[in-house]
Amino acid sequence: MNPNWKKMIVASMACAAFIGVGVTTTYASYQLNPEVKNATPALKKAAEIGVRVAENPDMKDLPNKDAIVVMSFGTTYADSRKATIEQTVADIQAAHPDTKVVLAFTSHIIVDRIQKNEGITIPTPEDALAQLKADGYTRVALTSLDVIPGMEYAYDSAIFDLYKDQFKKMTLGTSLMYWMGQEKQRDDVSEALKAMSTEFPKVGENDAILLMDHGTPHPSNAYYSVMQARLNELGMKNIFIYTVEGWPSLETAISQLKEKGIKNVTLIPMMMVAGDHANNDMAGNTPESHKSVLEKAGFHVSTYIHGLGENEAVRKLFVDRANESWNALQNEVPRASHHMMH
After folding, report:
1. 10 Å Cβ neighbour count for 326?
2. H helix runs in 33-100, sequence order
3. pLDDT value at position 291?
4. What is d(CA 319, CA 145) in angstroms, rounded to the nearest whole number?
5. What confidence tier does 29 reach under pLDDT thresholds 50, 70, 90?
6. Is 17 strand, coil or helix?
7. Partners of residue 67 on adjacent β-strands
8. What is the rounded CA–CA span in Å between residue 185 and residue 43?
9. What is the DSSP letter of 143?
10. pLDDT single digits (tens) 61-82
């Protein structure tokens, strides 16, 4: 095998920001360098990052009938669901008043529990798309309420891959945090953290904020490191990221708090909803809750039990992500200027 194959593949992917005609939102993606004459299907697929677009030539003569599907993990906490997920969907619907907007939950367990306990049927993405197809919809913009492109966003991508052939056109938007300012891309991580910070309490010398994330076995767990680096770069002092089940752990955060002589800690969930993790793992009264563990370690602890979806600045970013997917659905993808990646 040619030892330079890796360099050749990387050099053959060129970065460009696509700007839709007459739309304010730009969506970023990658396009293969024009010097690549015979891109293989694998190489084309490898270059599909950012907003994804698939068009089905077999259906090109079908009329356009468009819908938006909003995919979320979901929650059984009805009050939080209304204040976070449903409010975000309402904001997306308000931005697209004449378009059908469908909410789908990727957690099959949550779908079943809501059906059993509340008698409400929230479809899975699979069910939502089957219904849209049955109702004659031909083009679908998929959008996500995921914070990082982890396991849940991998599910969203799988939905795109498995269902794109059933529709005339399908697009998939990105998670809240996706780009991080690399290769002339925008910095979603800083943008999202600034939006979240609108709800941070004032932090004095002896105070700290711990932001609770989920944590994931997916390699995207590395985003938490980028978030911490961005918090530091933005001058947001004494704010630490930790995860419920991944790295960095609560123990990692506690050693940082002790090192800085912190006395007062505010716990804030960095999750879409204030569900089980926020109410029980973080703020619960059990000895193993994060609040109890911190109190036992000598800290004075306050908890702020709000999901990200309650923050208007964060919701606006989710609407932006939905708009990007929608704009990609409406536009012929314009030719972009190419540049070689090193």
Report:
1. 24
2. 41-46, 78-81, 87-95
3. 97
4. 10
5. low
6. strand
7. 100, 140
8. 21
9. E
10. 999 999 999 999 999 999 999 9
Model pTM?
0.88
Residue 1 reports pLDDT greater than 70: no
| Residue 29 structural domain | 5-50
d(CA 174, CA 154): 11
Cα distances (angstroms) measured from residue 54 to each of 114, 161, 264, 325, 336 = 33, 9, 50, 12, 17
Q: Is residue 293 within a helix (H) or strand (E), and if so which, with residue range?
A: helix 290-296
Do 216 and 107 fall within a single domain? no
Hey, which residues does 53 pair with through a beta bridge?
171
- Report yes or no on 193 lying in a domain: no
Asked whether the beta carbons of 132 and 101 are under 8 A apart, the reply is no
Residue type, 237: K
Helix locations, 64-107, DSSP H? 78-81, 87-95
Model pLDDT for residues 178-213, shown as the tens digit of each residue: 999 988 889 999 999 999 999 999 999 999 999 999
Which tokens in the block code for residue 81?
Answer: 């669901």
Among 193, 183, 206, residue whose Cα is nearest residue 264: 206
CATH number at residue 125: 3.40.50.1400
Q: Could you give the CA distance from residue 164 to residue 160 in angstroms, rounded to a whole number?
A: 6
- Could you tell me if 65 and 34 lie in one domain? no
Q: Would you call 122 helix, strand, or coil by DSSP? A: coil
Domain count, the chain: 3
Distance of CA 321 to the CA centre of its chain: 9
Are 74 and 136 part of one and the same domain? yes
CA 250 to CA 295: how far, in whole Å? 13
CA 283 vs. chain centroid, Å, equals 24
Kindly state the tokens that stand for 78: 């009805």
As a whole number of Å, the end-to-end CA separation of the chain is 21
Is 313 within 8 Å of 206 (Cβ atoms)? Answer: no
DSSP 153-196: HHHHHHHHHHHGGGSSEEEE---SS--BSGGG--BHHHHHHHHH
Question: Which is it for strands 13-19 and 26-32: parallel, antiparallel or unpaired?
Answer: antiparallel
Q: What is the mean pLDDT of the chain?
A: 89
